[in-house]
Amino acid sequence: MLDDSLTAPLTRTLADEIVGRLTQAIMSGELGPGERINDEVIARNLDVSRGPVREAIRQLERQGLIVTRRNRGSYVARLERQDVDEVYTMRLALERLAVQRAIQYAQPWQF
């Protein structure tokens, strides 16, 4: 479950460093959708107290990467079909705008 992203020594403030490492683990698929986030295991692997790990989990919950269920624990959020559709719709709009601007402002030597 845990690799270097969650076991290497810390170099920044604890909660921020843990947020970064958990985000990296989620984005890389090391921690998959629906997987339980065990604050005790993470704290032990990072050699920190559980407080900063819990703070990091709260931050990631506010960002929508983690879902916490009362008396059940915290889990990596699952994307619903609608979430994926919204992301692709926004990406398509941004990419269209980027192409339009590139064409509008590009110099002849850039083509």
UniProtKB/TrEMBL annotation:
InterPro entries: Tscrpt_reg_HTH_GntR, WH-like_DNA-bd_sf, WH_DNA-bd_sf. Keywords: DNA-binding, Transcription, Transcription regulation. CDD domains: WHTH_GntR (cd07377). It comes from the Bacteria. It holds the Pfam family GntR. PROSITE patterns: HTH_GNTR (PS50949). The keyword Transcription regulation applies. GO terms for molecular function: DNA binding; DNA-binding transcription factor activity. This is HTH gntR-type domain-containing protein. It comes from uncultured Chloroflexia bacterium.
